[in-house]
Prior knowledge:
Blueprint: H1 10-26, H2 31-61
Amino acid sequence: MSTPDPADPLDPLIERLERAAAELRSGDLSAQRAAAVVDDCARLATEAGSVLDRAVRAGDDEGGAPGQLPLA
């Protein structure tokens, strides 16, 4: 696994999704709390999709092939 980039906007989203998954797997949640965690996961996934979409569009603006992220 590579070292996370502190400037990568996906890192905090990934960490939050991992914590939510662990919380759901624990089985110690009420049905209401589990539903709230699932809703939060959906919101985080939407946010991550937006971050990726912006990255793809930025790559397109840099003259790369459409839809491709630049190589690191």
